[in-house]
Write a structure and sequence with these properties.
The complex is a heterodimer of chains A (357) and B (83). Chain A is an alpha/beta fold. Chain A has helices spanning 16-21, 25-36, 59-72, 78-89, 108-114, 131-139, 183-193, 211-225, 238-247, 267-277, 292-306, 344-356, and strands at residues 6-9, 100-104, 123-128, 150-155, 168-174, 194-205, 251-264, 313-325. Chain A is built from 12 helices and 8 strands. The longest helix of chain A has 15 residues, at 211-225. Chain B has 83 residues and is an alpha+beta fold. Chain B has one domain (8-72): Single Sheet (N-terminal domain of TfIIb), CATH 2.20.25. In chain B, 31% of the residues are buried. The chains are: A alpha/beta (357), B alpha+beta (83). Chain A binds chain B through residues 60, 63, 100, 123, 125, 129, 131, 134-135, 138, 142, 150, 152-157, 160-165, 167-168, and chain B through 1, 6, 13, 15-16, 18-24, 26, 29, 50-60.
Chain lengths: 357, 83
């Protein structure tokens, strides 16, 4: 089920635009502190209206992150491009065409850019939580006229999908769903929005993501503050992904994993990359204070522990790809238990006799 | 820019309006020309439309206080059940 391959992508994602945003090192450090500030703890405080639902992420803050990502976007982002390419590649594996597709937030820009007629998509609906992101996508539409797509835009929340039942043939989500508080719920809503035999394709970040940064944060905090607090989101593990698909009711579930190593010039550059992707901390119970001292120590620990010989800083991103279909009578199903009419022994004998002859 | 080939229901494309529902109740939405917003009659909430982009995050919705206005905004011919 799980196929793992390690890839190395040169960390040349940054463009001049970013360095202009944080002209002085001090500003960059503040940005760094802000980006990794936050205490990760499971918040069990239930929202009055939504009763027992567990809230882990601050969706409003995530929305602001996505706004900021829309302003920062534009540089080359090899990591996101590879993930989007890998995800879209799956459309070529099936003969079916998908006339109406919904592209959920995350790296929707890369999806639209790389789709190149795959999957026979005629109508593409782009949805994101951030209005600025959707506006950005809309304003850059003329660059992709050759796609011959009818592209529609809307602002929506994956947790409250505003799409009519049985109206889509494909739902693509590239690096967005790991920020939902209720991932199974979001996936169930996607399934409901799909037509029978519709395809759900998603890429989410897995638990091994940024393990180096996790370690560096822990060590630096121990050293400077005498105690530790988790500073990064809990992410889905590979073993959970299959369960998620089955729980959401998808047929023929498929899960595979890819690990990417992105190389940066410095730990601060890594944080800036996270900001352009809108992937910085959005835990509900986060502390807004991170001492500059601790932030600098984190960067120093990161560099001393993980830097390569050429001085580059590697960061691991684990991406879990999930594929699921909405049920349809034409899909293959396993037969019920005990319905077999041939014993395995006979099959074995059959093959053995073939070998001899 | 609005492409001429697209059929429009006011400011939003018809194709989009056909598949959109209220994010909370999953009931149909009605486009109101006057206020340029999408109204969910089921829960009495209006969602803004900005630059032809419907904003359907529950937090963006505004509860319609004025029932009267809601009725008047409901153009002739459209089904509106008395609440």
């Amino acid at each position: 089920m799980a196929v793992s391959a390690a890839r190395v992508i040169a960390g040349e994602w940054a463009s001049g635009k970013h360095s202009r945003l944080f002209p002085s090192p001090a500003a960059a450090i503040t940005a760094f502190s802000f980006a990794i500030a936050g205490l990760a703890s499971f918040c069990t405080e239930a929202d009055g209206v939504l009763s027992s639902r567990v809230k882990i992420f601050d969706r409003d803050l995530k929305r602001k992150h996505r706004d900021r990502a829309a302003w920062l976007m534009g540089g080359k982002n090899d990591f996101v491009d590879s993930v989007a390419e890998n995800l879209l590649d799956r459309l070529e594996d099936c003969k079916k065409t998908f006339s109406t597709a919904l592209c959920l937030g995350g790296s929707s820009e890369a999806i639209r850019r790389l789709i190149r007629g795959r999957g026979g998509i005629e109508k593409l609906i782009m949805m994101d939580m951030s209005l600025d992101m959707v506006k950005h996508l809309k304003n850059t539409e003329q660059n992709y006229v050759s796609n011959n797509l009818e592209t529609l835009y809307m602002v929506g929340d994956e947790e409250f999908l505003p799409i009519k039942e049985n109206s889509l043939e494909l739902v693509v989500s590239c690096l967005g769903l790991h920020w939902t508080n209720d991932l199974p719920g979001a996936m169930i809503q996607c399934r409901l929005a799909l037509k029978p035999d519709g395809l759900f394709l998603a890429a989410i970040l897995g638990g091994e993501t940024l393990k180096e940064l996790r370690m560096a944060c822990t060590i630096a905090q121990l050293e400077r503050e005498g105690g530790i607090s988790p500073r990064m989101s809990p992410l889905a593990q590979v073993r959970d992904a299959g369960n998620l698909l089955t729980r959401a009711g998808f047929a023929l579930p498929g899960v595979d994993v890819d690990e990417y190593t992105v190389r940066y010039d410095s730990a601060l550059e890594l944080i800036e990359h996270l900001r352009t992707m809108g992937e910085t901390n959005a835990l509900l119970q986060r502390s807004n204070i991170l001492k500059r001292d601790t932030a600098l120590a984190t960067a120093a620990v990161y560099e001393s522990m993980f830097a390569a010989e050429d001085g580059k800083i590697p960061a691991t991103f684990q991406v879990i790809y999930m594929t699921g279909w909405k049920e349809h009578p034409s899909q293959q199903k396993s037969k019920s238990r005990g319905s077999a009419t041939i014993s395995f022994e006979d099959i074995q004998n059959h093959f053995r006799s073939n070998e001899v002859s | 820019m609005v492409r001429g080939s697209r059929a429009h229901a006011g400011a939003i494309s018809k194709a989009l309006l056909d598949i959109l529902v209220c994010p909370v109740s999953k009931q149909p939405l009605r486009f109101c020309q006057e206020t340029q917003s999408l109204i969910s009659d089921a829960i009495g909430v209006s969602f803004p439309v900005v630059d032809e982009i419907p904003c359907l995050v529950p937090r963006d919705g505004k509860i319609i206080e004025d029932k009267e206005k809601m009725t008047s905004a409901n153009g002739p011919g459209s089904a509106h059940h008395h609440r």
